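hey so i finally got around to running the thing on that chain from the lab meeting. sorry it took forever, my laptop kept dying and i had to restart like 3 times. anyway pasting the input first so we r on the same page abt which one it is
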Amino acid sequence: MQIGNIINSVINLFYKEDHWLVMTFWNSLFIAFFLLPLGINLPTPFFIISIVLGIVNIFRFKQELFPDNKALLLFPLYFIIMSFSLIYTENISDGFNLLQRSLSLLFFPIIFLFVKEDASSVKKLFDFLLLGLIVSFFINLSMALYEVFYIIKENITFFDTSLEWVSIVFDAFIEAWHHFITTEFSKSVNPSYISLYILLVLSYYLKNKLESKTQLLVIIVLFVYLFLLASRAAYLILAIMSLLLIFNITDKSKKYTMAILFFLGVLVFLNNPHVFDFYANGEDFRKTLETDNTAVEQSRLLTWNASFKLIQEAPVLGYGLGDTNEVLIEKYKELNYVHNFQNRYNAHNQFLQTYLQSGIIGFGVLVSIFVLLAVRMKRSRNEFSVFLILFISLLFESMLVRFNGIVFFSIVIPLLLKKRSILSSRIIRNEPTMKNNT
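ok and heres what got predicted. didnt touch it at all, straight out
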């Protein structure tokens, strides 16, 4: 009976209104968002279906362009500028592959100019993303626990009651726990992307009060997931989000209680071994690093330094979509940043990555998108926290070089840029012009 109720609840999440074309468009997006945390290739066919149906919908219903949302045209402009950079790039193959992955930046914003959304549809996007996160958490947890079990099994070869055997068992569990807490928890999708999804889901749902034990349990699972992913950028964003929520509390006693819980949470997250290793390695930081055990943040600082030097050498046009990474890698070699060179790191900052790819014009368009987003989302602390999540994510990662990041940003940011808020509980009904559909 319980399983039947769960199945019915999931079925009810799907879009059932409007023309079958619009219905299939949204349901394909819902499935794609569910699969997004589970793997890179799984959601791709459903995103393609959404793009095709969205384009067909534009021509089928002959709808007029919505003038209030012309800010969305910045995304196609960004795509065109990237395409133009192929003219002066030598590595056409790599540039074309990235451009192909970026097609959603061209299509989805244009589609959302014509396919109106309502708050319930957007909520379902986040519902399906949440379901995907929960499933991916338990898949990753099962894989990690299997590895732990294997380590324990390999280290315990006999059974007796001697103190030596007890010591062996204890050492085996310590080794297994160390492996569990320090290994990369998400193997199918980059932890930075999963962390971004979790933070946006938390921000979307924590704007309302928790009304059930199930909701509380889901929130706890997401916090545990975030802890195990150990993304330092995500920790920073989470701290800012928490402070914004605390400042928004009017009851002083509740505010003090939440402040205490916040500082306890900070202590727990900062004691994650991934974060502790960063502090330990940070003491030995040098401008030029030739060792193989460089901390992620140390290598990121060196990456930014190399990127700035390259920008100074080509401040107008950049280096083209296909040559950016190769030029950056050669710069690592020139500066003797051995760890960065060996790992072939990109700019680890989308604003720097864009500047290197398409120069000052592409950089200006990307900055303009986020300036407009900041203006649109200053209406409440909740909306502003969503803006911070997206903005800080791009400061610490080149999110628009991988499909998971590109397609997510090409859907979420255009929806946020529309003048009618998708974060409110207010329903915005779709009323497409269908008089010519017969």
